[in-house]
Amino acid sequence: MKFLIVEDNPQVAQFVRKGLGEAGHTVDHADNGRDGLFMATTEQYDAIIMDRMLPGGVDGLGIIDALRRTGNATPILILSALADVDERIRGLRAGGDDYLTKPFAYGELEARLQALVRRGRTVPAQTMLAVGDLSLDLLKRQATRGGKAIMLKPREYKLLEYLMRHAGQVVTRTMLLENVWEYHFDPQTNVIDVHISNLRQKIDAGTEKPLLKTVRGAGYMMAAEA
């Protein structure tokens, strides 16, 4: 990973750079606020380690404020000798993601950085589900099998989506009642059987490889043949 440390104390900066470098990371360093702001806005980093008090006309909180105002969401770990609760609150409210006071243990700093990077990574939203040649477009709310569109009623769509999200797993009647019908009790009706039967007709009728299977005494499973 690539980190930026903005720190005017050469001993602290060298200590952190050495540790991160030995762990295989790339580390850039600025020893004043002006250069720190420039580097933070012109380069991409996985996280920034920011001292509070800096020379160069802009302090750490000023840099953080400038970054957040421009939409820069790079995770920032504030590193400061200001240990009072009010100062920590001020740093976090300014846009810092975590606050570590000096003196500190390198192991804790590295662990906090790793946690910030994990939280900062976004997982792309899933837009398609597929089981065999059956596909479900979650944006268009459209099901197709073998390229042929399948018309589904709203409840059938919700049922199919739930089954496909749990493909390869046994889905019980209780799970379907709670997650598809939002019942937290058994209504003692055949509503599930009716919808499963209708859904099976729509996705499996006329095909050589049925996808929707009944698991006797357990529930249902959506799975392609091996």
Describe, in plain words, how this protein is organized in 3D.
It is a single chain. 40% of the residues lie in helices and 21% in strands. It is an alpha/beta fold and 226 residues long. The strands form three sheets. A five-stranded parallel beta sheet has the order 2-1-3-4-5, sandwiched between helices. A four-stranded antiparallel beta sheet has the order 6-7-8-9, with helices on one face. Strands 10-11 form a two-stranded antiparallel sheet. The longest helix has 15 residues, at 106-120. The protein is elongated, with a radius of gyration of 27 Å. The relative contact order is 0.09.
Write the layout of secondary structure elements.
Blueprint (H helix, E strand, L loop, with lengths): L1 E5 L3 H13 L3 E5 L2 H10 L4 E5 L8 H10 L6 E5 L4 H9 L4 E4 L4 H15 L7 E4 L2 E4 L4 E4 L2 E3 L3 H12 L7 H7 L11 H14 L7 E4 L3 E4 L4
Parallel strand pairs: 1-2, 1-3, 3-4, 4-5
Antiparallel strand pairs: 6-7, 7-8, 8-9, 10-11
Unreliable runs: none
Element pattern in H and E:
EHEHEHEHEHEEEEHHHEE
**N- to C-terminal distance:** 40 Å
**What multimeric state do the chains show?**
single chain
* C-alpha-based Rg, rounded: 27 Å
* Total beta strand runs: 11
Secondary-structure-derived class: alpha/beta
- Mean pLDDT across the residues is 91
Report the helical percentage. 25-40%
Shape: elongated
Sheet-strand content, in percent, reads: 15-25%
Sheet with most strands: 5 strands, parallel
> Strands of the largest sheet, in order across it?
2-1-3-4-5
Q: Total number of helical segments?
A: 8
